[in-house]
Amino acid sequence: MTAIPILLIDDSEPDRLYTSIVLARTGLPVQAQEFESAADALSMLAAGPHAPAIILLDINMPGMDGFAFLEAYEGLPEASRRDTVVVMLRSSPLDSDRLRDFAYPTVKDYVVKPMTLSQAVRLAERFGPAAA
Q: Are the C-beta atoms of residues 54 and 4 closer than 8 Å to each other?
């Protein structure tokens, strides 16, 4: 089974730890790379050549927030973004927040934190390499 490369971008260490544990408990071959800084994650993505299948992106972060990341990310060459989807990690279930997230073409899903095991499995199965 092909590994599912996931990029987790969240400034909260407890949230990153929790999400990583949930991803590991899916039983799927998940390879999560964590970033506390959206700017650092963007630099890594811009350097290429390997893109993740899924980017789990927090919105409220110091420095470069999730929306600034999305603006810059969507400016990267299309070839480096083609097989990657962004899933927003939010603390808010409001429809107005969801609509703002989906205004970005690369955003394909939305999860209210904390992520559950069933949500993690669904995302991996829906957006992992086997789904392509």
A: yes
pTM above 0.85, yes or no: yes
Instruction: Estimate to the nearest angstrom the gap between the alpha carbon of 2 and the chain centroid.
Output: 18
Rounded distance, CA 68 to CA 50, Å?
22
Q: Answer yes or no: are the C-beta atoms of 9 and 41 closer than 8 Å.
A: yes
Q: Residues 55-72: pLDDT tens digits?
A: 999 999 999 999 999 999
Task: For the chain, give the longest Cα–Cα distance.
Answer: 38
Beta bridge partners of 55: 7, 86
What count of other Cβ atoms lies within 10 Å of the Cβ of residue 39? 15
Distance CA 19, CA 114 (A): 7
Closest CA to 89 of 128, 116, 127, 126: 116
